[in-house]
Structures are given as C-alpha cells and as structure tokens.
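Please, structure for the following, as tokens.
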Amino acid sequence: MSGALVSFSATAVAVRWLAPSFSVFEMLAIRNAGGVAILLALALAKPQLRPALRPRRMLMHLARNAVHFAGTYGWTLGVTLLPLATVFAFEFTAPIWVALLAVPLLRERPTFGRAIAVFLGFVGVLVILRPGLASIHPASLIVLGAAFAFALTAILTKTLTRTESTFSILFWNAMQLAANLLGSDRALWSRIDGAHAVPLATLCVVGLVSHFCLTNAYRAGDATMVVPLDFLRIPLIAVVGWQLYGEALDPLVFVGSALIIAGILFNLRTEARTRSTA
C-alpha cells in the first residue's frame, strides 16, 4: 500500500510537470507506449506470461478499454485544472458508483450498507462542490464523470477476471494507445528531449507499479484494512499540492472526503459482518 500511495501521487506530479509541454492525449500516449514496452519485455523474459497475449474476449477488452480511456482522460485533465486533493477526493466516489452499478450489471442485491455509502457519498460531493457558495468548476464535473467511468471499468474488469489473467488485462490496455495517438501531434516523439526524461519515465513506470501494488495489497490483506490505507492518498496529495504548487488546504475538501470515506467504510464493515455470520 505504501508503494501504491507513492505511485498514485507521483503520477499526478508527473502530469503537472509535463502539462506545459504535452497535451493530455500525448501524455497518455507516452504512458501507454511505455506500459506496453514494459509488459512486452516481461513477456520476453518470462515465457509463462506469453499465453496471456493471445487475443481472447476482444469485444469485452474493447468495451473495458473504451470506458477506461474516457475515465483516464477526464482524471488527467482534472489534474491539470483542479487542486490535486480535490481530484483525488472526487476519484474516491468510484466505489459508490460501483455499489450502484453492481445491482443491475452484476445482479448483486442492494443492501443497507450500500444505501448509506451512496447517501453519504452524495452529501460529501455536495460539500466539496459547495453549490450556491461558489461557481462549480466544469472540471469538477469531468472528474466526477471519470470516477463513474472507473467504476464501470471495475465492473468490466471483474467480469474479465473470470477467464483472463491480470497480465492479459493490463497488456490489452494497448488498445488505448491507438486512440491517444490519434489525438496527438504527429511530431510528438521529436518534441521529447532530455528535460522530459524524469517525468516521462515516472509516468510510464508508476502507471504500472501503482496498480501492481494495489492489486497485491488486496490479495494479501482484507479490504476492510486495505481501503482505509488507500484513503491516505487524499491527505498525502493535499500536502504535495501545498508544498509543490502552493495549493490551499481546503477544509471543505477534507470534510467532504470524510463523509465519502465514512460511507464506504460503513458499507465494508457491514458486508464483512454479513459474510462472517453467513
């Protein structure tokens, strides 16, 4: 979880660093290309990974990548326009959307814990947006849309994991590379110079490391322990934004985040108790 916390924060810092030189499409194209190169190198080094590269369930992969592409674009754009803590706070509404989407898409039954999580999440978003007290930044709605896309991605990923390996799912993220290249300048690769080396390397590596660390944290520990640690991303990125970019520590962002987190934790504990008594 420590690796995941540092990696997600490093991604946001790298995006801010590169934003004056590259568009969102270009940053994501470079990240996708780096990720594909790393995964192909791993496949060459470890023959047991190569069967995961065979095309299977490509329509499902395509649907997942289309939704994930939209979410990643919205999140990255939000990082360039909003305080970092605000972006991360809105991102954590994704579990609330998952709770709602799981009912019609995965045929999971609604529960009292999920209802509380949805209610507190909605109130928390209103606190952060504070409609009526300040004009709502359009980028806030974009990041909320990105969180919804991430939730739908989680549902599609869960469906794919029934038959596909994690390596296969990560590799076929390569589909997003083509979409990002279409939105990039043709001279993209010629504009890269030595000054971009550190942030570009960071963007390519931590994009994979963050998900690798988070996946293995869930594999090693219970969700009721892992998820609260994941929420430490909000205060961590708030301090990063304050120190590096002079972003104010907005108390309403922390209040809204606390409400969102409280709802998700209540739902986790309710479901854990239900499983233990079943």
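The chain has one domain: 2-277. The mean pLDDT is 88.
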